[in-house]
Amino acid sequence: MKKAVSILLAVIVTALTFCSCGTETNNTTSGINIVCTAFPQYDFVKNIIGTEEGLTLLLDDGADLHSYEPTAQDIILIGSADIFIYGGGASDDWVEGVLESANNPDLTTIATMDLVDTLKEEYLVGMQQDKHEHEHSGIHKGDHISEDEHIWLSLKNAVTITEKLCETICNVYPENAEEYFINSKNYISDLSALDSEYSALIESSARKTLLFADRFPFRYLSADYSITCFAAFAGCSSESEASFETMAFLIDKTKELALPVILTIDGSDGSLAKTVSDATGASIRSLDSCQSVSSADISRGTSYMGIMKSNLEILREALN
């Protein structure tokens, strides 16, 4: 990926120079020019500024965050923005090269993983590890366990990220700071209320265990509410087919705990979940990790808050 980005950069540096010297784009009509890599960041900012105008989502076709590579147009958009917001995890290893060549000294950059306390990617009991990982259990990315990138799946983190994004946006666009602060305060109130609903549900639930016949990006959500989880693969795993041992573990654990629901995540083909369901009689439900949202979904009204409310109802079924 780094090689491909380097080639693009070599071609685009001149274009970025012209963009940073005042070439207008479709994003500048409102006086705002903010570029976000992923949907959760985009939706947080939209709620802060109260509009989509001047706001760009790079992964707007539902592409997988973990395999995204910026296009030439993406690089130009980043280089000509006022604010660029990205995750900051291993999936964003292309960002450094793009920012070094942006030729925009006024560009404000925000890595959202720097705004919250992060957790290490978790290898659960029975979970299958990637074939390409280090031979020692839980060791990869060289000599350390990676930080889990899915920070937005904690409503508590969503509150913190919104607060800190608002501070930066107000500094860059001070003429609208009062409006942005009010919007942010109202949105944070809604996020906190939903967090309380999650806490109340978990506290009153008959079960405290979830099983994912899929990847497991919900590390932060499970940590927030002390939910025990089992899963086939880690949240950023490149694996898609479970070994016999992993499949047997998931089936046995579903039976042992008499779980009524097994979970998949958005973008899954559901094949592993169907196998576990056929063997146990558990029904299949999908939790949305906000990683497959497209511009078409946004135009139909999809929002972070709406997704997390829907996830709450899935949990209500899975834990009771």
Number of helices: 11
Mean pLDDT: 87
Structural class: alpha/beta
Give the spatial strand order of the biggest sheet: 2-1-3-4
Tell me what portion of residues adopts beta-strand conformation: 5-15%
State the fourth-level CATH superfamily of the largest domain: Nitrogenase molybdenum iron protein domain
Named CATH topology of the largest domain = Rossmann fold
Radius of gyration: 21 Å
How much helical structure, as a percent, in the residues? 40-55%
Level-2 CATH architecture of the largest domain:
3-Layer(aba) Sandwich
Name of the CATH first level of the largest domain: Alpha Beta
Distance between the termini: 44 Å
Number of domains: 2
What does this structure look like?
By secondary structure, the protein is of the alpha/beta class. It folds into two domains: 2-121 and 148-191, Rossmann fold (3-Layer(aba) Sandwich), CATH 3.40.50.1980; 196-318, Nitrogenase molybdenum iron protein domain (Rossmann fold, 3-Layer(aba) Sandwich). The protein is 43% helix and 12% strand. It is built from eleven helices and eight strands. The strands form three sheets. It has a four-stranded parallel beta sheet, with helices on one face. A two-stranded parallel ribbon has the order 5-6. A two-stranded parallel ribbon has the order 7-8. The N and C termini lie far apart (44 Å). Residues 1-29 and 132-143 have low confidence and may be disordered.
